[in-house]
């Protein structure tokens, strides 16, 4: 029956412009974890709303939907490839901008204007980064969200009407001490963190939301759900072994990027297999190291990493290609400097 | 008559090597605001000189001319496309290096050596960045100036003979307070800031210089002059709405990048029209947000943003292309990792 | 006779898998200074070991060899171009990771795991950066080492089991004072620094190691040895003229990147000649300026520049190409924004 409903929906979405647009928005939500699936997207929105209301932050839920809408409409107005728009590829950065801005900045009318400008710009940045990445066949991932939102939250320091309520504290990086690294490991803590890591992909700190997100993934791809949990578990193990901040670990802050790296490398961009599994494990572990590195690097300016650790690790692990040939350490042919010389001068 | 003089000049510049070189230098000055026009360049030099002398900083005027000269000569010596050299495309980053170095570093003989090295390097960096940008059909803009001069002024902290007299103060970003954001808006303040924003493109804080610059633009392109003023007005409005630093606004520091973004998007790289106008407005507003963001991000190292907000915003708004196709979230063909696996192993 | 031994070795390396692998490792060491030569690599390992033992840091010698091994094996496991693997192009970033990690982080079992993960990742990053650089015909240089190791050492602030013993002190950049810039120049100081600069390419602060390294270069290429010494001498002169930190200069910290820039531009990637010599001198001087700049820029996060000044300067000086054409300041054809407009709207 579920299949029939899905077929009915797809037919409706094709025939009816309004339903087609809702379908586009839902796919946009789903694409945050690479799923071109409206049911996944719908469940993501349910999970976000649950988590936002549980934390008494309705602005995060509303902001996500508003930004998803604005980013998608901007894409429809610009003359971009409409197939990609229909797959939700211009929505997933917007929804993240809309979740992040009310999480880190104080709620007032200026914040909403800021959020709307940021959502529209995220579509332009998506087009820009996708154009660059296409040169090497790599996707933009969530970098348009990261870049746009870094500008937005950094700007909050300079603009009196935009309040950096959840930014900072700023400071030089200092070596973490034994106290801060302490974490009471228990079965329930591990189980909760496993799902919190998934929830934090949308900046939500809520176990139920994480469970809903994993179900949403499984609806579309069991591989993706499995790799989300694998990435989450690997992140917990890596962060515990290295001795990361206890509160950081248990709030899911060492896991959300690793979850995305594991889904991306393990189930989306490479064909699953043993070699890819090993490669994914290495990439996921390194994502946790980049998380620690960027936490330190950004501490003087007091802004969060967002999903940058996922983006950087996944780009580095996607860029290698079979026919790739490094430039040998030998003279470059036809350069601007030496060619004119060889005939006229000698050394 | 003006037309006849212009024709005479062009003929002279073609026939006489010396006058041709002067023509190249003047076009180099003009290209800072994208004008391949020697009269515009000449008026820019007049405006710089006026502003520099009014501020008792003759080094800025002399430095601009010296660096323009060095950068252009370096381009002639390297075997680059001489058509581009003749259009002044190797002069505009040099002249900006020459204006910035004496503005931020103390005057002594070492500073002059530093300025000359920087001007020569700016040409190499222009060739490098232009080569990269050509991959996506986007211009280098003033990024060669920004990158070269960031290295030069950051180096001033480390070199005892180079004095960082106008750098800093360094510090962590802190939320701007009501006092600092206060600004007494009046007709004269708005009118003055409108032109100061244009003058600050060359790091000059002078209303008359701004007026001369707008006239210089109008000589070459009325669209460019109009978009310069539109960008300036939009920047003032955006900065006031967001509550930026009052002294920053009235000294033109929130407007110079926006002026360049508006000229570039509105009148140079896109064909003017209503859609482009809306796109330019969005890009200009976001330039002001990037300005606030980079002000905060660079405060720990105490260096100015230069025109980086313009460069980053304009690149992001130029990179989208009609035939652009984002990479779908699906397996990448022919990768280094999984292809070998699919036949030999399964999961 | 040396020739016969070399021929014997090459035959053995071709016929015998084990000896072939040792040959690959030695070439990997040699490629740090661009030499596809096993004798050079062997002498580099001798120099590293000498310097490490003299400083009572056996971990640096062992770490270098272990990381060289791990990086090379990773490359053999991934389906990359095996000719490049045989030339050692997947070893040179690994060996540098292996020298740097024990130099800056405290020795414990976690550090060794960290080093092994970093060495394996350095190969993936090499493939990624080489793929990007190939677009413009420029090599990855040591950027895979720099990027990987920046992540590793920055992460040390966040991980309790990884100890940042030789990082920091963190702080805002401050203008260097006369005292710190003072240096007693003498013939012996100059001679020692000349070789220390070369030794510091592998993060070794030892004159004998520097002498061994220069001999190792001369075995493979007299041009490379000559340019190493030229780059070193130029770096000393530039740093003294600009007034860099006296202890920085005499410990070789202003010279190691300049040594690499000079070898790369002067003897490897361009055909030697007078024009190239002038170009190399400019690039080497600017490398010293970038060194001062990055020292200041990284001081808030307390990490070293590694060879980033070499990488950035050499990329900027390699990217210019003969047929290079800057993008003119004129409308871009076929853009996403304006094309749709021109028919439907006017302005």
UniProtKB/TrEMBL annotation, chains A, B, C:
Transmembrane segments: 37-55, 61-80, 87-105, 111-133, 140-159, 198-219, 226-246, 252-269, 276-294, 300-319
Organism for this UniProt entry: Branchiibius hedensis
PANTHER family the UniProt entry points to: UREA TRANSPORTER
Top-level taxon: Bacteria
Keyword tags: Cell membrane, Membrane, Transmembrane, Transmembrane helix
Compartments (UniProt record): Cell membrane
GO cellular component: plasma membrane
Entry's family note: Belongs to the urea transporter family.
Protein's recorded name: Urea transporter
Lineage of the organism: Bacteria, Bacillati, Actinomycetota, Actinomycetes, Micrococcales
Site (Important for channel permeability): 307
